Give the backbone structure.
Amino acid sequence: MLRLITIEFYKLKHSRSSKVLSIAYFVILSFIALIASIEFNLGDFQIRIADQGIFNFPFIWHFNTWVAATLKFFLAIVIVSMISNEYSNRTLKQNLIDGLSKKEFMLSKFYTVVAFALLSTLFIFIMSLILGYSFSDYTEFSIVTREMEFLLAYFFKLVGFFSFCLFLGVLVKRSAFALGFLFVWWIFENITYGILRWKGSAEVADAIVQFFPLEAMKNLINLPFQRLNFIETAANQLQADIAIDYAVHWYEVAIVSVWIFLFIYGAYALLKKRDL
Amino acid sequence: METILTLNNLTKHYGKVKAVNDLSFTIEKGNVYGILGPNGSGKSTTLGMVLNVVNATSGDFKWFDGSDTTHHALKKVGAIIERPNFYPYMTAAQNLELVCTIKDVDPGKIEEKLEVVHLLDRKDSKFSTFSLGMKQRLAIASALLNDPEILILDEPTNGLDPQGIHQIREIIKNIASGGTTILLASHLLDEVEKVCSHVVIIRKGIKLYAGPVDELNASHGFFELRCEKQQELIAALEGHPDFTSVKEENGLVTGFLKNPLSAEALNTFLFNQGLVLSHMVKRKESLEEQFLQLTANLN
């Protein structure tokens, strides 16, 4: 396993574009911290975003993972080109001739994807801790460790998305087309949702579309902003936590896990069937 | 003798096209093999199948004694196929280091192998800056990194200029003289003739011949002779029991043998008859002539 990761990182290490994009990704991730310094001047009021509760534990886990997840496209480019370059340079063929099996080739890509996701999760974990301890109103250990399942959801979301990219890379062999296909697929999911909602109902549409890959990944971490308002306005009055909808459910993780397996196995099956 | 590769009825169909049809042969250790065939005869497809990049339609093959999986066996093989494939953004040395990691071998040999192909002074240049000849030589260096049991070369001189072709041939000869088994696919007959001891001839995916180059044709070769007394020479040869036919062309007498006969024996025989030769050459048909004969027989 270490050998396979070494092989893949060696390839990435020497590719300037991959290096630049990966570094850019982590730099931009750290820009989340800059949200803290955003200040508005509304007449006499001065509003500081950091003071509005977004960096409060445990909400920060939800907020930061959601924001960070929107940046995953940077790494998606690296991952798609990681596959398509092997096709366009014909190095995939040479790798196999040199004694890498097709399974090892696929695993080396998958391990790399998992490593990227782990790294990103770790990065967000550390950054959230720092931001949280700097700005949160509550820093008791029991509150800090609450809702940390969002980190797990974040990890699965990234691995799922990157696996999809790997699969598309193998399927179409060209990075631009693979990313285009990803976009088309996203539109397809939305149109399907629209039609189901129009012909059936919102419940039917939700029930079906939640099994689609991109929707399944989206459901792992729901939009956090309504929750922010909710905390601000309602929490005082109700004194109750009714935000169950935002939680990470086991079946959401399960659906994404199934997709990860299907994408990786599908990519391997494609590779195995093809003549190079 | 140790077997390196065995093919059993290996077949590959692309739709209706039968690229390789029931091909069987074995590669023994220590020989230099040539796979010979016109363009599109299935040479590269055959090599692709044994190298794990093309899926066989039917039949099978085994590396060495067949106890290992193909991809493990390939770590003991060095191969280059068609054109050299490397990462363009890495330098020569970086590319070779990656190959070492894949093949699980010590990267200490990189400089030594670059020296073999005369690329040591360019080891820190990016692959994308190399000429085709240099790329091809780098590919050979890469194939040699693991000191392979067998070196497979598919059209190694394709697209090179005469100098490049010469360099590659010298390198191949050097490697062969070191005792490495070589399998060389080519459509260039003189190339195969110059370096190979054994040939496999295929045409339209069907094997026509597999065996030593010398036994490709049952003939024992021919003599080219010249003498002052041309007519007496022809008469003498026609009277000799070892000759099948004699012909004269441009003042040169060619006699075809049906039995083995040494040049010394013939010279003595003619001298005793009072015929002194001014020109004497014993030759075998070139591979090209034999190849054309063999393929012509099937038409």
Observations:
- Strands of chain A lie at 39-42, 45-48.
- The interface with chain B takes residues 3, 6-7, 10-11, 14-16, 85, 89-91, 93-102, 104, 272-273, 275-276 of chain A (CB under 8 Å).
- Residues 2-23+54-273 of chain A form one domain.
- Residues 41 and 215 of chain A are 37 Å apart (CA to CA).
